[in-house]
Amino acid sequence: MAIAPASARPHRDEPPAGRHPDPAPRRRSPARHVVLLGLIVGVLLVLAPILVIVLNAVKSPADYASNGPMALPDSFHLQGIVDFWNRVDFGRKLLNSLVVSGSVAILGVGLAVLSAYALGIGRVRGRIWFLVFFLVANLIPQEMLVYPLYYLSKSLGLYDSLLSVIIIFTVIQGAFGTYLLSSVFAQFPRELLDAAEVDGAGRWRVLWQVVVPASRPTLAVLVTFFFVWTWNEFFLPLVFLISNDNQTVPVALGVLQGQRTMDATTTSASALLGIVPAVVFFLVFQRTLTRGVMSGAIK
Amino acid sequence: MIPSAVGGGADLASPPAAEPRRRTRNGPRRSARHRGYLVFLLPGIVLSTAVIVVPVLMTLGISFTRWQGIGRPEWIGLDNYTRLFSDANFWASFRNIGLVIVAMAVVPTLLGLLLASALYDHVGKAYGGRAASALRSGLYLPQIVPVAVTGIIWAWILHPDYGALNSILTDLHLETLARNWLGDPKYALYSVMAVLIWMQLGYPVVMFMAGLQRVDPELYEAADLDGASWWQRFTRIAVPLIRPEVYVVLVTTTIAGLKIFGQIFVLTRGGPGNATLVPSYFAYRNFFERAAVGYGSAISTVLTVSIVLLTYLFLRLQTRDERLGGW
């Protein structure tokens, strides 16, 4: 999603904001302090809903009932989280999400590499039309695909299986990856390819031994994006994964939330369990993501 | 895709750079160099055809029929479409999507410009990049919270009886301001919009701060020497320079807004009444709750055509803008 345009002017490779020492720090006037304070308050307001959830996830129901949602918890109560975990078999849901997102990330990037190799480096005839095709494929809303896919997967016996969701998202993410990687590969240094060709390497060997290793940073960014996007997907998994054993984390939480049979502390506990993996990914991938957002890194 | 935001939104703003054509007069060198690549395109084409092209054509075909998902579809021509254009729910869903786009694309872009500029130009320069990065990460956090969880958090905060927002208002003796935020047709859509802004804000901030890296520090120094105000530096230097990012953000968030489903599903299910109905949920309801597959297909088709047209217009606008030497 967050890929800066390749058409942007090439700029010097600078480290991201916040890395380079400031040559001449500005004077800190009172007005500046006010601006900073305003920003800090604003960011705290943005974070407040998440903080409130964390507060209430570790409260006992009795504590919540007597002191309300905004009070600090009087003890560290993990029972709500444990109960919820067991009630929905959360470990199973986590595993499903991991299997789906991990497979899609790897397979989707693999598929995109193959297509982009033909379009960006091979420059096959009519490649502009292929690119338009992959771009439009990426624009199509899932509602336009969902019923036929639902129908077809039922007749193929793939309905309500992780495999169906993996195949569909591999293709959808792969379309985006193809579009992006084609423009990256179009800039690939010809000399490297020619040198490999002179050595008598075939197309496959050039791809695996020259192109893929040289584009590793970009591919890592793509794998990250695909993983996170797929993890958060909601619509198609909601339609395709109906049995409890196959649900992914977002679907399990979304469906439960509709039931309204949970008290406030359990609700908070469930939200916390949904947030934790996301934050973990964020911390683990932050460097990759930041690099991905920087237009310079993607090239 | 992102989206974030946004499920996956492509970098629409820049078609892959085409190398200047080498004039090889279809000599042997060119053909040798470009031979044997087609096989690599096969998996992508075959799979995309099976998973995307065929379903799209099927949905298009089904939209001209009456079908309940079983038995034979019955051909009814344009009936679904004529019914659609006289359906109050359909118009409500498109009116709502307009406001959703305001909340997902327009407001976050404008706020994001101000915030990114303040973080980069003020905080980054006076208090160091660490502070700016920390604040940026804080703003970005709602973007990575899964949609289903966002629904849980906000449905609970906005709950009329035991929600945190109303209990804060009560503690401040402002009971009269307490509302049934998501359950009252008058406020539901505005509440949803507020949640969407909260979700989306981090994405433009991150993108624009990345774009501001391109600003030549000497420009700012020169502006300082000329005594330019903060506002002038912002409007004359920062905004024109990160135009490409602004386009990317606007395109990707607008498309994400048109496709919005999860947020509506977990917050309001389109209700109360049709106050927060959006096309994608409207289609979902017809497919899986009412078994009106033909009608749902017609809704999806109209939505798809709108998205493709809008993207095309955006790209046209942008190329014109670049040609005029926008930056």
Automatic annotation (TrEMBL), chain A:
Its main location: membrane. Residues 94-285 form the ABC transmembrane type-1 domain. The chain crosses the membrane at residues 34-58, 98-121, 128-150, 162-185, 267-285. It comes from Plantactinospora soyae. It is a multi-pass membrane protein. Pfam families: BPD_transp_1 (PF00528). This is ABC-type glycerol-3-phosphate transport system permease component. Residues 1-28 are annotated as: Disordered. It comes from the Bacteria. Keywords: Cell membrane, Membrane, Transmembrane, Transmembrane helix, Transport. GO terms for cellular component: plasma membrane. GO terms for biological process: transmembrane transport. Belongs to the binding-protein-dependent transport system permease family.
From TrEMBL, chain B:
It comes from the Bacteria. It is a multi-pass membrane protein. GO terms for biological process: transmembrane transport. Its main location: membrane. Belongs to the binding-protein-dependent transport system permease family. One of its GO terms (cellular component) is plasma membrane. It comes from Plantactinospora soyae. The keyword Transmembrane applies. PANTHER family: ABC TRANSPORTER PERMEASE PROTEIN, INNER MEMBRANE ABC TRANSPORTER PERMEASE PROTEIN YCJO. This is Raffinose/stachyose/melibiose transport system permease protein. Residues 94-314 form the ABC transmembrane type-1 domain. Residues 1-30 are annotated as: Disordered. It is found in: Cell membrane. Residues 1-10 have a biased composition (Gly residues). The chain crosses the membrane at residues 37-58, 97-119, 139-157, 187-210, 246-267, 292-315. Pfam families: BPD_transp_1. Keywords: Cell membrane, Membrane, Transmembrane, Transmembrane helix, Transport.
